[in-house]
Design goal:
Layout lengths: L1 E5 L16 H22 L3 E5 L5 H6 L3 E4 L5 H14 L5 E4 L8 H10 L5 E6 L6 E7 L12 H11 L4 E3 L3 H4 L5 H10 L4
Parallel strand pairs: 1-2, 1-4, 2-3, 5-7
Antiparallel strand pairs: 4-6, 5-6
Helix pairs in contact: 1-4
Amino acid sequence: MRIIVPHRGLDAAKTRLAPVLDPAAREQLARGLLLRVLRVAREACDDVVVISPSVALGPLVTEAGARLAVQHGMGLNAGLEEARSEALLEGIETLAVLHGDLPNLSAADIHALADAVATPAGVAIAPDRAGTGTNALAQCPAGAVPFRFGIGSFAAHREAAAAARLPLAVVERPGLAFDLDTPDDLARWLELGDVA
């Protein structure tokens, strides 16, 4: 299995937190979140790739034991398709996507996602807390379904799996469901004490 973590770059991350955090604080938060997600991903899997247009992420990614692939196209799904193309060329069978802003993620969450993918072919989706977005996705084979991240991505990924006639598993775990995007998310995270 290969895990792909898409990232816009530290200077472009967490813009929705601008009402409560200045640029330096947002960058520090984004750095901490990404580093934590990468370290947890490496606990669960030897093969972790960050796809990002930001070359500056290189040292942080390397520090976490992952590898940076520099994105050339525009947008999240385009970047993921670039990373998928490389994975297919390298013979990767199972591909997982994890967002880099999951503060409570554990290796057990990643194992649960991977274990939920049916063999020899299937898709597993971890929705966000609202049940509308996709915080993590795993598929086998690596080219099983197109990436449909964005507004309403949970339904879009379910439809893609149905169109491909693949078994679908929905993985609902707190560590996969909670992403830190908005001021409300940040307040909830600090209130619960999950700041490590």
